[in-house]
Amino acid sequence: MAHIRPLHDRVLVKRIESEEKTSGGLYIPDSAKEKPLEGEIVAVGSGKVLEDGRIRPISVKVGDRVLFAKYAETEVNIGNDKLLLLKEDDLLGVIL
Questions:
Q1: Each residue of 58-74: pLDDT tens digit?
Q2: Structural domains of the chain, count
Q3: Which residue from 39, 57, 58, 64 has the highest number of Cβ atoms inside 10 Å of its Cβ?
């Protein structure tokens, strides 16, 4: 899918779209939808470079479903895909 490798402590995420209707069967209009803050990791960088020059590996892997902070992403277009480039610090958790 992605033909880009994030650098250092960055990850590439594909946003997981929210449902079109509620559990009660009501359809949500586009104007009322918020961008989902959930996605799937499609690529990871090598890790964070520490002050002493060592590299701390990233704690997530390709395929993990994650929650990320609102307004933290940088959107990139690769082919027909809209992906998000995030720093590892902007990840809030891994969905199990």
A1: 999 999 999 988 877 78
A2: 1
A3: 39
